């Protein structure tokens, strides 16, 4: 697409009579299509009757379409915007592989979308934005490279235990500030009031999410640390408020072009006020750690990639209702992609997670799983995915 033609067309469409649009503005259409065929199963459940037998699927790996642009306002100030929408090209709906809702698709601005101002003093944006999700170059497998990755790599899904209060990827109504880069480092601070409770319902408006991300780049080395504190709105009927914190620290070394190795540690800590963590007493302050080792290496038109990771048992469960024991998991991913061009490649991957009897971690990113991991009956099941896909960026 001729981006200059697009910019002229958009500028003409939104021109304001009587105002001279002397500043330069640009608008870009971008996106990706990531689809393929895979084989999925989740067997080994504590109750064998709940096993998910193997099935062949045509899948969509977080395909999307977006519009983004900038306008030079002078004196180093720029207006910026982005509107990004997830599209399920495999089924034309907003559901995932198991029929569950995919909240990152099916409506305008379903993915990171914002408007803001950028300057030498930093960037301020308002909109639907991720607070804790991305790992920078420490781990890009997921839907940036292939179909999916180990579920706890981003720190948002440790199986039975996940951050309560709110999701932290593509959060609605977020204010973000990103600082300028000094000595290779910058920070992003995020705030969401979580106060969009409907008047007349039995829900308070005291929820909020606070997030902080620090990044540093020094030659081939990259490091990132994330923290988020999330409180849900108090339910008036029961007086309970979902509360949780999450931590993530990662670092990696790019030892040659297209080759990198790194390690990511995550911890999720939730006050189980609402009883959302199955098998754990309400009010228990439980936490769980996870680790992921990431590796990628490129030679010619081929890139090899691998992950290995594990989660520890949950901690601080109270007796006698404790199900902290046997709540750990481990998993790995191996894959490769062959570049047909800079924007198009084919890939193959195999993902596997082995869960203990009181754990169920599954590949929920992009709703790509065929199971509902919140169902207690799926405890102990071990999900596996073998995929062959085609990725095209535009």
The backbone outline, from C-alpha atoms, is globular
Instruction: Please name the CATH topology.
Output: Porin
Total DSSP helices: 2
Q: Summarize the amount of helix as a percent range.
A: under 10%
Distance between the termini: 9 Å
Q: How many domains comprise the coordinates?
A: 1
Alpha carbon gyration radius:
22 Å
Number of strands: 17
CATH C-level category: Mainly Beta
Mean pLDDT: 89
Class per helix and strand makeup: mainly beta
What is the element string, with H for helices and E for strands?
HEEEEEEHEEEEEEEEEEE
CATH superfamily: Porin
**Main β-sheet, in a few words?**
16 strands, antiparallel, barrel
**Proportion of β residues?**
over 45%
CATH architecture: Beta Barrel
Sequence of strands across the biggest β-sheet: 1-3-4-5-6-7-8-9-10-11-12-13-14-15-16-17
Unreliable stretches covering 5 or more consecutive residues: 1-22
């Amino acid at each position: 697409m001729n981006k200059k033609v697009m910019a002229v067309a958009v500028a003409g469409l939104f021109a304001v009579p009587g105002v001279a649009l002397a500043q330069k503005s640009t608008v870009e259409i971008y996106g990706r299509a990531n689809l393929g065929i895979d084989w999925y199963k989740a067997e080994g459940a504590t109750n064998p009757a709940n096993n998910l037998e193997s099935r062949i699927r045509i899948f969509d790996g977080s395909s999307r379409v977006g519009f983004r642009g900038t306008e030079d306002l002078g004196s180093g100030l720029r207006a910026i915007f982005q509107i990004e929408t997830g599209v399920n090209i495999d089924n034309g709906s907003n559901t995932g592989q198991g029929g569950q809702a995919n909240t990152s698709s099916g409506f305008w601005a379903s993915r990171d979308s914002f408007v803001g101002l950028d300057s030498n003093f930093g960037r301020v944006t308002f909109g639907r934005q991720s607070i804790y999700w991305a790992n920078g170059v420490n781990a890009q497998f997921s839907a940036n490279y292939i179909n999916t990755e180990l579920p706890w790599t981003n720190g948002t899904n440790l199986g039975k235990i996940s951050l309560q209060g709110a999701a932290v990827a593509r959060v609605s109504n977020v204010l973000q500030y990103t600082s300028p880069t000094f000595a290779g480092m910058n920070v992003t601070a995020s705030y969401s009031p979580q106060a969009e409770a409907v008047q007349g319902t039995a829900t308070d408006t005291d929820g909020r999410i606070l997030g902080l991300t620090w990044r540093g780049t020094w030659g081939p080395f990259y490091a990132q640390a994330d923290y988020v504190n999330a409180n849900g709105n108090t339910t008036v009927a029961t007086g309970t408020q979902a509360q949780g914190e999450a931590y993530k620290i990662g670092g990696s070394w790019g030892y040659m072009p297209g080759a990198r190795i790194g390690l990511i540690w995550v911890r999720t800590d939730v006050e189980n006020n609402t009883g959302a963590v199955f098998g754990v007493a309400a009010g228990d302050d439980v936490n769980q750690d996870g680790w992921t080792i990431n590796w990628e290496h490129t030679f010619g038109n081929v890139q090899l990639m691998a992950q290995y990771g594990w989660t520890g048992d949950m901690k601080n469960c109270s007796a006698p209702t404790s199900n902290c024991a046997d709540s750990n998991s481990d998993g790995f991913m191996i894959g490769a992609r062959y570049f047909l061009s800079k924007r198009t490649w084919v890939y193959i991957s195999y993902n596997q997670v082995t869960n203990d009897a009181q754990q169920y971690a599954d590949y929920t990113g992009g709703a790509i799983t065929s199971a509902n991991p919140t169902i207690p009956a799926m405890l102990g099941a071990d999900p596996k995915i073998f995929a062959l896909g085609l990725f095209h960026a535009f």
